[in-house]
């Protein structure tokens, strides 16, 4: 069974989104970022070098590890001390990613089930390889004849990240202290004007997890995935200006698009997960079926 | 959010089924098993030692690798030469697993999408850490009121593996040359007397992948998972004698059972995947939600 060009492009997308696990990634040279003896991220060497200028916050690299100073022994002192360093680095213009400062606090924890050890500005998490969590929603319709279509958003051309690309109908990062369902309902409302009465019917189905690196940092992310069947007569509308348009597309077209450069990569993974769960991809005809499933769920 | 005893037991199940990835596993000492330069498995050191007695089939360990002799340069000669060695080892009683000889040929390939390089007797695959593929079917019903129940099988007390334990309604290994759908229909018919007309309505939804080790070998497996909604008036019946009984149970009861020693472990994983995809487990109330999802999809 030969793999199609679509299959190859899709496998390539998954490899790219998991390039931190590939031979030759910065993983071998990254330092573990630890708080109170527990690893919460990965720090690339250039970032670690700069942090040595702040010995009152970050201990010196030792045995492949950078630790927060133990004197910072609880949530608020840690968060505030790191935030002060990040503000300085931001003013110095040391890192491009800090130009995308969001004033959004993300929880830092060894695992999702652990109590947060501190919060960190969202834009800085990749410098520390701190895992970020978010919510993505597959909005779809089912016609009376059973035909499934999916609503896609086209991101605003002025979005800081991935401007102008195709995206799921709604989604967003999980800010410190917010529940997953609350975030889902909020993002549906803000981004696509989906009223809470409809958004609350979204049902949790999966997570999509991946870790990639670029020049500046390590992006370790897990997205909680929800499916939301939208009424046939409902149309998402532009809300907070993060979206420029919405399209309702046949599944074949969505499948084709997810493997193009026109799609935000992690959102394309969420769509791929939908296509697999809803049997639009079959293991006897898709040679990379198992690679697709495992590629959607990588973690360290 | 504290984890329940059920959550802890379920996480433990996933860790156990992926113990090959844990620190302290034999992974560090295993030799790569290669055919024509491509890795197809992992050979534990005791197995590798025995194989040096067959230098016309297996090259000597070199650089952490045991290779099939290059003179065995195609599918049939490789398969037959290895089979002859395995027959000898079986007669010598060297390995317990060979007492479970099945006369079932499994394909050996670097990845599922690759052409098979040879076949190997099913009972021997764990000695070489050769990946095995199978099909598992979640058989369930939905009442008029929307209540979901699941059919479970109780394995025969005379089954060679996991006798007497709870299992999915049907499932089986993928023999060399068989399609996934063909295997599904055959196993539904043989194990549960589900007629082809019903079994063919099963829809592919996922894979469950894991690698565990025991004293004798490495079990690297991927199961293609199908959901099959059964008619309310249909009852599976004992077919080929591999099952002693079938039960139709409420989902809460199935959830409780999957985290007990009464359930065949990989089948319990298939049920866990069902519970997640069908929203019977929710991320705001299950602290290990993301660990569960990633634990169901581990690969090297």
From TrEMBL, chains A, B:
**Any GO molecular function:** 8-oxo-dGDP phosphatase activity
Q: Which InterPro entries match?
A: DUF4743, NUDIX_hydrolase-like_dom_sf, NUDIX_hydrolase_dom
> Domain Nudix hydrolase, which positions?
132-271
Note the PANTHER family from the entry: THIAMIN PYROPHOSPHOKINASE, THIAMIN PYROPHOSPHOKINASE 1
What is the protein's name according to its record? Thiamin pyrophosphokinase 2
């Amino acid at each position: 069974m030969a793999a199609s060009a679509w299959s190859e492009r899709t496998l390539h997308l998954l490899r790219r989104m998991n390039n931190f696990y590939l031979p030759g990634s910065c993983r071998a040279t990254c330092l573990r970022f630890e708080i109170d003896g527990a690893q919460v991220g990965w720090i690339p060497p250039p970032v670690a070098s700069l942090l040595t200028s702040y010995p009152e916050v970050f201990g010196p690299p030792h045995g492949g590890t950078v630790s927060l100073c133990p004197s910072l022994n609880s949530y608020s002192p840690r968060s505030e001390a790191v935030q002060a360093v990040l503000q300085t680095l931001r003013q110095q213009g040391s890192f491009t990613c800090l130009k995308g400062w969001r004033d959004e606090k993300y929880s830092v924890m060894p695992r999702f089930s652990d109590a947060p050890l501190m919060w960190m500005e969202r834009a800085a998490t990749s410098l520390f390889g701190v895992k970020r969590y978010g919510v993505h929603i597959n909005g779809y319709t089912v016609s009376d004849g059973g035909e499934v279509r999916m609503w896609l958003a086209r991101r605003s051309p002025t979005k800081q990240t991935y401007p102008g690309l195709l995206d799921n109908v709604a989604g967003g990062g999980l800010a410190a202290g917010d529940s997953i369902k609350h975030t889902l309902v909020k993002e549906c409302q803000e981004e696509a004007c989906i009223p809470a009465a409809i958004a609350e019917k979204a049902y949790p189905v999966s997570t999509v997890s991946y870790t990639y690196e670029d020049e500046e940092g390590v992006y370790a992310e897990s997205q909680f995935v929800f499916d939301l069947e939208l009424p046939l007569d409902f149309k998402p509308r532009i809300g907070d200006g993060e979206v420029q348009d919405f399209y309702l597309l046949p599944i074949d077209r969505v499948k084709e698009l997810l493997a193009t450069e026109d799609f935000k990569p992690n959102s394309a993974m969420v769509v791929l997960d939908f296509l697999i769960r809803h049997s639009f991809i079959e293991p006897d005809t898709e040679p990379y079926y198992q690679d697709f499933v495992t590629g959607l769920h990588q973690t360290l």
